[in-house]
Design goal:
Length: 622
Amino acid sequence: MSDAELSAIERAPVTAATPRYASAEEALHTVFGYDAFRGEQAQIIQQVVDGGDALVLMPTGGGKSLCYQIPALVREGTGVVISPLIALMQDQVDALSAVGVRAAFLNSTQDSAQRTAVERAFLSGELDLLYLAPERLRVSATADLLDRGVISLFAIDEAHCVSQWGHDFRPDYLQLSMLHERWPAVPRIALTATATEQTHLEIQKRLQLADARHFVASFDRPNIQYRIAAKNAPQQQLLELLRSEHAGDAGIVYCLSRASVEKTAEFLVQNGIPALPYHAGLDSRLRAANQSRFLREDGIVMVATIAFGMGIDKPDVRFVAHLDLPKSVEGYYQETGRAGRDGLPSTAWLAYGLQDVMQQRRMIDSSEGDAEHRRRLGTHLDAMLALCETVECRRVQLLAYFGEISTPCGNCDTCLSPPEAWDGTVPAQKLLSTVVRLQRERNQKFGAGQIIDILLGKTTPRVTQYDHGSLSTFGIGTELGEQEWRGVVRQLLAQGVLAVNSDGYGTLITTESSAAVLGSQRSVMLRREPERPTRAARARRTALADLPASAAPVFEQLRTWRAAEAKEQGVPAYVIFHDATLREIATGIPSTLAELGTMSGVGENKLAKYGEAILGVLGAAG
Ligand code: ADP
Ligand code: ZN
């Protein structure tokens, strides 16, 4: 910024943005076009409007944004939002502008003229909301700027980034305690979708939120159907899922490695599915372009590493698929939570197999860091494995992980087609005793493949080479097939009755718990995979699902209109209207502007801007 620009800003008189609405309800109806607050939104907003601090834990899609946007419209001054998601700030600002909220951002992507314009707007009270990247606060000029304006509140979005043990740690978040020290009178609201008690306490401590009221919502996402499938041909399984249940839908496919991201995206494209890759190794411009296409176009499938997704607030992501086992339940829940923010039916699907367990155990063994660190990784993995192997409701188990008690949900794979539990003690003993004999009698260790060949009595070249045909357990396991044996190995590993040796070859060894199984003091219950998910579980879950037949073509016409409008404005389609709103319009067929204005998601601004066009589309359709 030039000296002249700086001094122009300094000379300008400072004005506070005046409150735009008398009450929170008025802002909700007029600006956002919603009928009622959800969950604890009303109480959270009241707390901040009254000048108090709040710490909000709410799942993705729960409606956190309104909790700071509305107070910023009701209180005097500008609401300052700290967000780590620079790449998404433009979209956030566009979405707010679309409903008539005056918003802007300051981050490193702007040139000095753009920044000066924003600073001037802030100082003259023309902004309801100002988004800031946390690193901006390191620059003393930013703090000075904030000092000179009038701030209605600080919102600290993605507050779990302050947690050093979490997966999204950002060092710049640690200095956010300065907000309290420097502006003690400004209310603060910290928000996150991470639910564990540890993160919760860490946010409170590090952001100095000792006096904050805590709002902890239920983390259930009832519209998401959770399914975990046995992995055999993952790409084919994925393709089958997309074709039979999610044709034309937008979704995210997570893979562990960059290489598998590339391969999977290519495979989908070859099969006629519009898929794009995203990982940290891609050129940053290509990455940004792919993200932008995913957000703007309908029906794109993003194949990505976990580098993708935080803050993606695209409401109509219809499925999240994992082709590899996530490292923790926490990460899995965050990632799957990106499906169905709009509350419409969505799928979370994970393919999981023996290789995943072996690979993760190997990664932990070879990871850097001390024993304590490895122990923690191991605990995370065990919880994830327990979720995969459970014969109980997935959701009950997921919510229990976050400290919530619930009852079977009816909308997960185990509820829809309950797997059988069977007593696998005898097969477990056969397998363990093979491992023990190899170790004791031959001083050898082998991987799952060889051990299963021995149990099945297969005379492979390797069996001959090592003379394993003479072991007393050779051929004693023919009651199960090879696939079933792999399932047994996987589950014994998951239960800690068997372990992967840390030699890097994936050989199997016994554990402290093995003796109890061998000695029949402990039985082993195993899960028998259902052959195929039931039809109910495989029903189509596209945006068109359960729309009355007469409304479906109207909905499609509205979507076509929306796509053209979004393209012209260069904004994501959901910035114009959400699917949920278009569904309501397509079902209700309003004939007047007044009637259209009562529909959820149609506020004053959008009614004025698009009302006539929508009625036009409906008129042509009718
Ligand atoms: P979060 O930030 O918690 O993930 P959002 O703030 O993006 O969630 O809200 C999720 C979706 O729910 C958005 O599409 C939002 O417009 C909608 N929403 C939020 N509050 C309400 C409400 N009171 N009534 C209707 N829709 C709402
Ligand atoms: Zn269930």
